[in-house]
Amino acid sequence: MTFPRLIAGLTMMLAVGASHAFDFKTVGAAPVILYDAPSTKGGKLFVVPRGAPLEVVLAYGEWLKVRDVNGELAWTEAKGLTAKRNVIIRTPNLKIRATPEDSAAPVFTADKGVLLEVTEAAAGGWLKVRHRDGLVGYVKNSEVWGI
C-alpha cells in the first residue's frame, strides 16, 4: 500500500469514527451482570444496578460490549438494557437549574454519582432531568455522563 493511500484510508476511518454518535442504553428493571466475554460462561466482572447508563461499544448477536461510567469495558446481554435515557452526575454539588441557563436559579443540588432521568433535550447543550424524588430541572450535557 502506498503512503498516500494509507493516509487517505486513515483519514476516512477517523472521519467515520468522528461522525458516529455515542449509543447509550439504560439497565432495565433488574440489575445486569457484566462479563469478560460474550457468554454466560464467561467470568462475571460486575453487577450494574437498574437505571444505570451504559455506553454500547459493539453489538455481537444478543450480546453488547459496553463501557460503564468508570470507563471499564465488559459484555452484557442486550435483553437487560432499555432505550430509556438516564445520566449520572460527574461533579460534586451540581446545581440543577430551573431553566436551561447558567444564571437560572437552582432547583436542587445533587452530588457526584447521582442518577437522573432524562426527560428531554433542551437547546444549547442542556438536558431536562428528573430526580427519583420528582424534582425536575436542567443540567448541561458536559456535567453528566450517559448522553
UniProtKB/TrEMBL annotation:
Secretion signal, residue range per the UniProt entry: 1-21
Pfam families listed in its UniProt record: SH3_3
SH3b domain residues: 22-85, 86-147
Keywords: Signal
InterPro entries: SH3-like_bac-type (IPR003646)
Gene3D superfamilies, sorted: SH3 Domains (2.30.30.40)
Protein name listed in UniProt: SH3 domain-containing protein
Natural source organism: Rugamonas aquatica
Lineage, top ranks: Bacteria, Pseudomonadati, Pseudomonadota, Betaproteobacteria, Burkholderiales
